[in-house]
Specification:
- The chain has 14 helices and twelve strands.
- The protein is an alpha/beta fold.
- The protein folds into two domains: 146 residues, NAD(P)-binding Rossmann-like Domain (Rossmann fold); 167 residues, Dihydrodipicolinate Reductase, domain 2.
- The strands form two sheets. A six-stranded mixed β-sheet has the order 3-2-1-4-5-6, with helices on both faces. It has a six-stranded mixed β-sheet with strand order 8-10-9-7-11-12.
- A hairpin with a 3-residue loop joins β11 and β12.
- α1 crosses α14.
- It is globular, with a radius of gyration of 20 Å.
Length: 324
Amino acid sequence: MRLAVLGAGAVGRSVAELASEYGHEVTALSDSSSAAVDADGVDVEAALTRKEAGEPLGGAAPGDALAAEYDALVEATPTTLGDAEPGYSHVRTALERDRHVVLANKGPVAERYADVRGLEADSDGEVYFEATVGGAIPVCATVDDLGARHVSAVRGVLNGTANFVLSRMAAEGLDYDHVLAEAQDLGVAEADPSFDVEGTDAALKCVIVANVLREADCDSVAQLRERAVTLADAEVAGIRDVPGSALELAAEDGRTVRLVGEATREGVRVGPRLVPENGTLAVTGTRNIVEIDHEYAGGLAISGRGAGGEETASAVLADVARLE
């Protein structure tokens, strides 16, 4: 399959580098300032080498990637909130050309889920977004395979940065500021960690799952428009104000604290929660875990790496395989 990859950060780069191993060809690769476009296949290694040297990816403009010849658009630009632009417009352009779309960018399906589904309904293209929830963990695919109508709740630890901070605080008895600085030194946390530690990233993932659950109960896009949720509908609290003493007290009772997100048909909640110290949700480091409550299967758990270039690219390429 021919892929146009928008975004040359960790995820977009990894998708482009791994595409050939999965039997696909990259015909366009762009970042925010330039693009490499070739209907016969972009030389990905050469394009990325140019970028590393501070040069343009190629001689084309970013918009030329959208107009290129491709079967599926991989949208891996940074997540934006509110109107989800420019990611949403990229999705619209591809679907209006009857091309498929695979999202790593959370914005379009967290903030404009019903709009995306409306565009998809009028197109010969399809939209998949496994990579937007849980990195390498197949959350959406599992919910779909189980039958979303029969899933009542999805909850989990869905942000590696927040989990690293909380698990280090608990293990070493360190305070938040100390561990956050350590995480930044290790590259686990961004220079501005707000998106992660304030719960926004986990909330976006849960909003996407909540929309999947609600969509299962809708008979039309019009009905979905009435029921779809966005980040503004979520109840969100972060970990900035979790004191080390709270973790110490929890440990005395055989428990610990994790940033847990939960998506149900009723809504989305994200915040620090007390969990059993040896329980399913007490994963450590940057590891993520998701629990799924199913009407007939009971409780299921899936754990793995919730972020990372190659890890998230594996989810993107799994979606591309679903299109073949």
